[in-house]
Amino acid sequence: MSTPIKSADAATVMRLLQFTDSAFPVGTFSFSNGLETAATERLVHDAATLEAFTREIVRQAAFTDGIAAIHAWRSHRAARFEGVTEADRQLILCKMNEEARLMTRRMGKKLAELALHILHDEPLERWLRMIGEQRTPGTYPVAQGIVFSAAGVGERELFCSQQYGAANMVLSAALRCVRVSHYDTQRILWRIGEGTEALYAETAELEPEDMFTFTPQIDILASLHEKGTQRMFMN
């Protein structure tokens, strides 16, 4: 395993905050990760059911997006570009519904484009060209892995950012379609954060071929959302 970069200096912390900020313009606000349909079907209707749903999303993300992001980060650090594309290919195979594939590819490409306006990185440029040529999917977690490595942000911090983003996407959407308050969502986010270290320890030992996902209910909700006629969020 690569030795994580220590993010003690102020500039690195600022970069971590910048890339993790929900206002960073990659389109996270446009998607609900299936929550909108779950709320419409009354599967999620209060703080307790929202927390259970968010925990499932976060755990699913850890064993798919988290593994891909970590592997892309390590591959970028080791100058092993084939590892980046391997993580990209394996991850898209774990996205069972079209909405998830659209979301991760749209956000991945946007993050790569934005990052190249901020920093110069040849592997990132190469990966973005491959996306344009349709030779690699261009998933968001892989983009995060490349960008965080290029920016000098550590592996553990990358994983935390990925988990925070997955949870915050759902909780931000919940404020628009579930009867919960900011107090509820912040309390849920705090509690979910307590399990992040254990998830990191578990996923950090896995390889791209170890990715797995089995959340049929969430995939069914996403498929219903794709064909829905009343939406606040993208499909």
What is the string of SSEs from the N terminus onward?
Answer: HHHHHHHHHHH
The proportion of residues in beta strands is under 5%
The SS-based structural class is: mainly alpha
Could you tell me how far the N terminus lies from the C terminus, measured between alpha carbons in angstroms? 37 Å
Which CATH architecture? Answer: Orthogonal Bundle
CATH class: Mainly Alpha
For the largest beta-sheet, the strand count, sense and barrel status come to: none
Number of strands: 0
Shape: globular
* Amount of helix: 55-70%
| Total domain modules | 1
CATH topology annotation: Urease accessory protein UreF
Radius of gyration: 17 Å
CATH homologous superfamily placement: Urease accessory protein UreF
Unreliable runs, pLDDT <50, ≥5 residues? none
User: What is the mean predicted local confidence, pLDDT?
Assistant: 88
The number of helical elements comes to 11
3D structure, described in words:
- The chain is an all-alpha fold and 235 residues long.
- The protein has one domain (31-223): Urease accessory protein UreF (Orthogonal Bundle).
- Helices cover 68% and strands 0% of the residues.
- The chain has helices at residues 10-20, 35-40, 47-77, 81-93, 98-118, 122-132, 140-150, 155-177, 182-193, 196-203, 216-227.
- The longest helix is centred in the first third of the chain and has 31 residues, at 47-77.
- The protein starts with 9 loop residues before the first helix and ends in an 8-residue tail after the last helix.
- The mean pLDDT is 88.
